[in-house]
Design goal:
Blueprint: E1 4-5, E2 16-22, E3 31-38, E4 46-55, H1 58-65, E5 89-90, E6 94-102, E7 114-117, E8 120-124, E9 127-134, E10 146-150, E11 154-156, H2 163-167, H3 169-183
Amino acid sequence: MKLTTSSSIPGNIPDTMEAMTLVGHGDFDMLQHNSAVAVPTILDNQVLIKVSVAGVNNTDINTRTAWYSKSSADSRDASWSGQALTFPRIQGADVCGEIVAVGKNVDPQRIGQRVLIEPCITHINGKQLTSPWYFGSECDGGFAQYTSVDALHAYAINCALSDIELASFPCSYSTAENMLTKANVSEQERVLIPISIRS
């Protein structure tokens, strides 16, 4: 594998990094700080991202508690894909950061790009998955100093918003988009979005 590194960080990518690792399903005690996690090795179609901010997505909570299982908190099918997770797992679905290295099939001009990661992963090393994975659930995410993802899931961002503001977009935007898509709302319609509904 050819690894192209950024000229602004020549050879400065460490071998290990700090990360919050999920060691099993349960409460907060299942999250452990680890200061000696291997920096991801990128594949040919991937980018290595130096994480600036990782927001908390409801998927991070639901994955930790095994909420996605068909039965209550059953670890055998507790992920988006319905499969058991492997531990330790680095969570963190909503990530903003900078590309610091690229695989051999990725344009080296992408190094230095500020990016947001699309958390619904449809490709691994250029190959389409049969069912989507979720970043930080089926594969390691962004609660770490570095993370890797297929280049097509790393979107270049050029705006004045802060990294913190941008990291809130994947969850909030996709939730709103999904709501509008499912409701089939058109330009001519008016909608009411109640803040709280109680039965």
